[in-house]
Amino acid sequence: MSVYIFDRLDRITDDVLQKLIGRLPEGRKQKALSFRFTEGRKLCAVAYRMTEHILETEYGIHIGDFGYTEYGKPYLPGYPDIFFNISHCKYGCICAFSDCGVGADIQEIITFDAKLAERICTENELEMLSASADRDRELTRIWCMKEAYLKMVGTGLSGGMKNTDTTLLREHIAVRDFGRYIAALSLERDTKKAEAQLENAVLLDTDIFF
User: Where do the structural domains in the chain lie, given as residue ranges?
Assistant: First the structure.
């Protein structure tokens, strides 16, 4: 498996963004342009181009666009043995590839909110939050781990954050604190491999886009 992160959105100028959007397939281009704010357009275009670049260089595959399950999880039509997942936040995007089910999430640090914590956390997780010296980062870790796991199983948030106890799922989820953001990775099997790949995630720059 492999994990890639692009966290230099500051290098995507308006000129670079226009060129990047111009390279997208029509469906993805319209999706990018549908975002009202520039940040949304950047993330949409970057996430697709990252995936396209990795598929071309690592797998020798050229894609037109993704397929999506009923829960919105992307897949590659015609390539059932290649599993991937993408996520983005205000600082950048993460893309993970594997030979088994995979879920990835990236999240800027959340400001602790007791109501949010009650809504998404189990009793075990609330106890962890209560004991934490940094509840902002702990809540972000919990959020990221839940999203990655639920994306791996294929349900996304419809699977229910409150029903997912990350304290009981550590063998299925790897998580890493990058400072400005936290990333989590969940694999259907071999989580030690996920931990190693997340620890050694490839940080990409804008040269991959053109």
Answer: 2-209
Tokens of residue 200, six digits? 């050694």
Catalogue the E-assigned strands of 13-91: 67-68, 74-75, 83-89
Distance from chain centroid for Cα 25: 21
H or E, element range at 186: strand 181-187
Q: Distance of CA 164 to CAs 31, 106, 124, 194, Å?
A: 31, 18, 11, 19
**CATH ID of 2-209, from 3.40.50.300, 2.60.40.10, 3.90.470.20, 3.20.20.70:** 3.90.470.20
Place of tokens 């088994």: 100
Could you tell me the strand order of the sheet in which 202-203 lies?
83-89, 92-98, 2-6, 202-203
Say what the pTM is.
Answer: 0.91
The pLDDT tens digits of the residues spanning 15-61 come to 999 999 998 989 889 999 999 999 999 999 999 999 999 999 999 99
Query: pLDDT, tens digit, for every residue of 40-50?
Result: 999 999 999 99
Distance CA 150, CA 144 (A): 10
Measured CA to CA in angstroms, residue 112 lies from 84, 106, 142 at distances of 30, 17, 12
Per-residue tokens: 94: 């993460």
